[in-house]
Amino acid sequence: GDPEVGEMGLAAVPGRQPAFRQGLAAAVQYAKEVRCPRIHLLAGRVPRGADRAAVAAEMETTFMENLRYAADLLAQEDMIGLVEPINNRITDPRYYLNTPHQAAAILEKVGRPNLKLQLDLFHCQIMDGNLSQNLETYFPLTGHLQIAQVPGRHEPDSPGELNFPYLFKLLESLSYTGYVGCEYAPKGDTLEGLGWLRSYWESRGLQHGGTSKATE
């Protein structure tokens, strides 16, 4: 979409289907060039001035139609489409897709195996909390994870509500093998801000890169 006019994705925005398909085609080409197998299909915002409840059904129908189209296109490239709930309490009041429950229900209706949930624990905590149970519940649908401390959206070891060492151990117990995206705003220098990861590895008896000291 066009950020200058307030768009943030188009997948659920009625009347913007041609632009969504054009953007998806471009995204696939970029993804192929950088060998990235996953593409985030942003749902988009409730149209300005519209009542969320009044347009909910039309937006869901549009979203599902676009997701099916995207899934079929991505399947040809052996790619996965991701949908991410973004909280509408702090980050984006008009964003259409807000909770893992809403996203999971839509994915179930669409019924495409190469469409997955992009679960950002920052947004999930703000909207629903209950992260342990939500991780276990939605883990089978999850294709990518993202983290940031709440409420500041900084490094995981910054002051906040979330106990990331506990959550990381939970992900290990669930046998999660994918990437964990660090989608936070560093409080200072980016590289210095990654010190939390080195400290976490050391607390687990691991070397830089997550390898065990005992295996050297």
From TrEMBL:
- Identify the residues that the record assigns to the Xylose isomerase-like TIM barrel domain, covering every copy: 8-199
Give an example GO biological process. Answer: glyoxylate metabolic process
What InterPro entries does the record tag this protein with?
Sugar_Epim/Isomerase (IPR050417), Xyl_isomerase-like_sf (IPR036237), Xyl_isomerase-like_TIM-brl (IPR013022)
Gene Ontology terms, MF aspect:
hydroxypyruvate isomerase activity
Keywords from the named record: Isomerase
The record's listing under SUPFAM superfamilies reads: Xylose isomerase-like
Its protein name is: HYI isomerase
What organism is this sequence from?
A: Psilopogon haemacephalus
